[in-house]
Amino acid sequence: MDFNMKKLASDAGIFFTRAVQFTEEKFGQAEKTELDAHFENLLARADSTKNWTEKILRQTEVLLQPNPSARVEEFLYEKLDRKVPSRVTNGELLAQYMTEAASELGPTTPYGKTLIKVAEAEKRLGSAERDFIHTASINFLTPLRNFLEGDWKTITKERRLLQNRRLDLDACKARLKKAKAAEAKAATVPDFQETRPRNYILSASASALWNDEVDKSEQELRVAQTEFDRQAEVTRLLLEGISSTHVNHLRCLHEFVESQTTYYAQCYRHMLDLQKQLGRFPGTFVGTTEPTSSPLSSTSPTTTAATMPMEPSGAGLAPAGETALCLEEVAPPASGTRKARVLYDYEAADSSELALLADELITVYSLPGMDPDWLIGERGNKKGKVPVTYLELLS
Fold this sequence. Notes:
There is one protein chain. The chain is of the alpha+beta class. The protein has 8 helices and 7 strands; from the N terminus they run H-H-H-H-H-E-E-H-H-H-E-E-E-E-E. The strands form 2 sheets. The chain has a 5-stranded antiparallel sheet, covered by helices on one side. A two-stranded antiparallel sheet has the order 1-2. The relative contact order is 0.07.
C-alpha cells in the first residue's frame, strides 16, 4: 500500500510538472525544444496520410453501401465481433419483384416473358455487385482500416510519449537554468541563514546548497535528454514506415480498380446479352428497320484498351453472305497485320464473324473500304470479322 501511494504521488508530481511546463510554453513563458525539419515533415506527412485515409475509407464505404442505416448496422456487428448477416442487393430484390409480377400477370404473355428475362439479368447484376462489394472490402477497405486501427494507433501512442519526454526535458532545462541563476546569486552574496526546505537542515552555505542543486539538475537533464533521444528515434522509425504504408495502399488501390473494372465489364456483358434476348441493340428499335447511330460509335479504336467495350453495330458492313464470300477469297495483306489480345469473350453472331475468348492472341488486319469498327481476325485456319472494341492491339 505504501509503495502504491508513493507511486501515485510520484505520478501526480510528474503530471503536475508537465502541466506547468505545457502551460508556460503556451503563454510564452518557457522555452520549448524544437524538433528538426525532417522530423516535422514526417509528422506532417503522417497526419496527412491518416486524414486522407479516413476520408477515402468513409467514401468507399458509401460507394459500396449507399444506405447509411445498413452501414451503421454493419459497423455495430463488426464492433460486437459478430458475423454480418447476408443482405439482398437492390438488383436481386428487383429481380424478385419482376419474377413475382410475371407470375401473377402471366408468364406466357409478351410482358411476362420480358419481365422474366429482365429479372434474370438483374439477378446476375446483383450477384456481380455482391462479389464486387466482397472483393473490394477485403482487398481495399480492410487494409485501410487495419492501418487506422493498428499502425496509426501505435504511432499516436509513441508521439504522445515523445511529447511527455519533451516536456520532461524542457522542465529539467528550466530547473537547471533557475538553479544556476540562484547559485550565481548566492556566490555573490552568501546567506548563512538559508534553510533547505527538503531536509529542514540549516545550511552552512547557500552557495554550496545551490551547487548541489545544479549537479542534481544536470544529472536529471542528462537522463531526460537520453530518454527523449531514444523516444525520438523510435517515433522517427515509425513515421518513416509511412512510406511502406503508401506502397501497400497503392497495391490495394490497383486491386480495387481491377475489381471495379471486372464488375462493370460483367454488368456490360449481362446487359448486352439481355438486349440480344429482347431483340434490341444499341442504335436500333424493335418494329423499325432504320438504324440510328449509337452514342458510343464515335469512340476511337485506339482507346479501346482503356474503355469498356461497345456493342458492335452492323451499320456499314456488307451482308453476311457477301462478307463470308469475300473472306474466303481475300488473302492477308503482305504488310499491315498486327497481333491483338482479346479483352472480352465474344460470341459470333453469324458465320462471317470469329468467336473470341478473353486473353487469347490473334492476328488482325483491315481490308479497303471496311468499317473501321471491325477488323479481319485469324486464328489458325479460322478467319472472320472481329469488333475492334474487343481487342487490345499489341504490335
